[in-house]
Design a protein that fits this description.
Layout: H1 18-25, E1 32-36, E2 41-45, E3 54-57, E4 63-65, E5 70-73, E6 79-82, E7 88-93, E8 96-102, E9 107-109, E10 123-125, E11 127-135, E12 138-145, E13 149-151, E14 153-160, E15 165-174, E16 179-184, E17 193-198, E18 203-206, E19 212-220, E20 223-231, E21 236-245, E22 250-252, E23 258-268, E24 283-285, E25 289-293, E26 305-312, E27 326-329, E28 336-341, E29 346-353, E30 356-365, E31 371-378, E32 384-387, E33 390-391, E34 406-409, E35 423-430, H2 436-443
Antiparallel strand pairs: 1-2, 1-35, 2-3, 4-25, 5-6, 7-8, 8-35, 9-24, 10-14, 11-12, 12-23, 13-22, 14-21, 15-20, 15-23, 16-17, 16-21, 17-18, 19-20, 25-34, 26-31, 26-35, 27-28, 27-34, 28-29, 29-30, 31-32, 32-33
Length: 444
Amino acid sequence: MFGFPGAVGRNGLGGASGASTLMGLFGNPADGLFIDLTDNSLIVKDSSTAANNYAGTALSKLTFTRASTATRFNASGLIESVASDVARIDYNPSPLALRGLLIEGARTNLLTYSEDLSNAAWTKSGASTGSPVSAKGVSLSLLVEDSATSTHQAQQGVSFTSGSTYSVSVLAKAKERSRFALTLGASAFSGFAIGDFDLVAQTATSTGGTAAACSITSIGDGVFRCVVTATATATAAANVFMQLSNGSTTYTGNGTSGMYFGAVQAELGAIPSSYIPTTSATVTRAAEVCKIATTLFPATATGPYTIFAKGIMPPTNASDSTRVPVALSIGSSPQVRYFAKIASGNIAGTNVVSSVTDASTGNVVVAPFNPVKMAARFDLNNCNTAINGTLGTTDTACAYPSAPTQLNIGNFNDGSASHWHGWIQQIAVIPVALTDAQLQAVTA
């Protein structure tokens, strides 16, 4: 099932659609596949197989699976749950804007009672909980300091594995206090991994003994998603702390001041993913797979092909793995044409023949959460890629992989690895080798 909760625009059944506009960008070619995932429109033009010609809803042609619920930001900028096997058309909550189809891999929230710091699963020290508030579609617990000279915190234990990278995140909203530390315990992170957050200044600083990547992002209504990403230095159980701060996390409290916290998440991964709510047990969000068989559009030959994708970049971390927005493949790794974001944030068009990378062109850095347009030419001894109008260097020694059997959207090959963890808006595949100038023009 491929549902689109809250998608906007026309559906391609009549009048203008995103897919028809995309097709026009390529000069209305005789053959090609054109998908706009922001308005659920799809056009197939196939001059050799008339039965494939199609103009209508994407959901009628694409296969989408996810064996669990998931969350997204809806058109009101609120976090909401989406049913199993329903695709997520996601919005930027602040400023409110449509981002596109969100595709993520499997992740587990290792913390329980993610919206209830009053539960005994959270140990309070130098603090207690007050009345919660609802914000951005979730419940935020009030953590109130006592009058002792100490740390004022809530904590919960998690089992960490040495050498593995974890992302810990929380939604925070100021009350009397507007600073806090999100801290990962020293038993698994040498000298602690600490993110120091100031919601007024909107700053995030790593201050612990273990280096951490820290970020703070406004999601509107005075709520911020605060993230700490760090690599465990030991295999051990360690606490995740939210510690109130007045510039220091050890101070004499006044017995009344506090902050709001909720949607607390600890997950294995070098970048944070969408929120996974928990109560009495940890919860896993299943991996998402989205694809269309090449028998439904003109892509059954070995080549040439031009592949285009437009979307929004995922978060980036130096220790992150390869992330793939679109791949034209045989359903497994030996033969594939795809775009890839590597750890440094570079985007490249990649051609793989018999499990060997035959060409990798483009290599342009695009910052996290920024718009990106990608177009790659996969032709015999003539591969190149343009990213946001910047052209790579032509590879003149590249072969054709086997004829593709499917187009994977937001993941690599069979959907089991290298999920994009970002947003996809448009995709085009045409059985023509665009020139360098044309690659630049469609991505400018």
